[in-house]
Amino acid sequence: MACYYRQHEDSSVTVPKFCNETSVGVTYYDIKVRVGRVEWLVERRYKDFAQLHDKLVEEVAISKKLLPPKKLVGNKQPAFLEQRREQLETYLQELLIYFRTELPRALAEFLDFNKYDIIYLLQDLAKLFHESGDALLSSKKEYNLSALEVFAISERLSLPCPPSPGKYDFSHVLDFCTQLVSLVVTPVKDNSSFTQDYNTVDVPIGRSNIIPNRLKFNLNAFRNLKTLRFSALSTENIVDVELLKPTLQTICVHNTTIQNINQVLLCDNLHKHCDVPSLLPEEISSTACGASESNGSLVTADAWQELTELDLTGNLLTQIDGSVRTAPKLRYLVLEQNRIRNVQNLSELPHLQLLSLSGNLISECVDWHLTMGNLVTLKLAQNKLKTLSGLRKLLSLVNLDLSSNQIEELDEVDHIANLPLLETLRLTGNPLAGSVDYRPRVLARFHERAAELSLDNEPGTQLELDTALVLSALLKSKQRAKQK
């Protein structure tokens, strides 16, 4: 990212071309700004140059003659426009020479430094938080920052820059960040299309060469965060999450290309692919990875002390790896719309109450009670399940969503009909749900508890319950006959 304060000697501005909008009779000049390795383009009319010049003459007292004069006749001729392009380029270059280390706000905004430069971008944020920070925090303690803004805050913490005047001072940004409880980080702000674009290709920001997925930053300014949400941006952009672990309670990462949970929970750990200990010791080892490297284990410094909710919807996860053990207090685990085929590594999560695996590739569930016996809510919609025998001993289960699977046989319902606490069941979208008298036949499998069950979001009607009662009696009769 650009920082004119540090890189003014390696900065340049040119006006490489102009463009005529013949339909409206307007000429635009393309301005190319370079600060170090960062480049961006700005489109301006001569009218914009004139307004900038008036501000600079008034505020900084530069010469009125510096800007080439306006021409009323023949100002659309190609030769004249080419001459003016050269004059405007010279004008901007002289301004950069004049303002060697710090640009006036008018010039910074004219050249879009407040969009791509650390100092001027943060000045805009500082002004916003100075004027509206209290209102933003009181209405909702959640705020959306772009990857570029988070990167700028991270970089600014290590820059020995002089303080900016009044409302532009960086202290306003720090004060806001330390009070923030929930942070949302996206590639850009106010652009609904980023969820499709930024997670598949390296899309630059605006008309610059800055790619958000390549920005590495820390979150040290956000010391009281309880919720962190990333969308279309990998958490591997974070280089240090240690300060978040004592307070963070919720992590949500959506619409990225991550394939493993350790890319989130161990995002800044170089040994994220090592085996994670099945039980975290009481005391944290002082030898970070010295002892760990010998046995392929990770130290307990990676433990998330307060994390209770992990939502990784809409990624490319293929498995539940051992890194989930670093969050032993996890209560809600949402892994919808991924590519998971097998469920494992959940035995070390004794507090897990909700597991959502809808929209995956799961085709079987074998003895899940051995690893998730305390589950209250299980969502398995839009998978490839045909049999339910592996759910028969989930005795704590209250809510079960099996919609849009491949369950054909009514007898499969018997595996879950004896779950004593089950209250809601969804089977819609399965081949079974298209059979004659589907609802009363399913309710009949629950016998005396049929009236307590909500099937496909609706309790049984009196007619359905009466029919289920008759079918239940017939089922019991058949069972007694088989026993004899």
UniProtKB/TrEMBL annotation:
PROSITE patterns: LRR, PX. It comes from the Eukaryota. It holds the Pfam family LRR_8. The keyword Glycoprotein does not apply. GO terms for cellular component: cytoplasm. GO terms for molecular function: phosphatidylinositol binding. Gene3D superfamilies: Phox-like domain, Ribonuclease Inhibitor. Keywords: Leucine-rich repeat, Repeat. The keyword Zinc-finger does not apply. Residues 7-136 form the PX domain. This is PX domain-containing protein. It comes from Drosophila ananassae. The gene is Dana\GF12314.
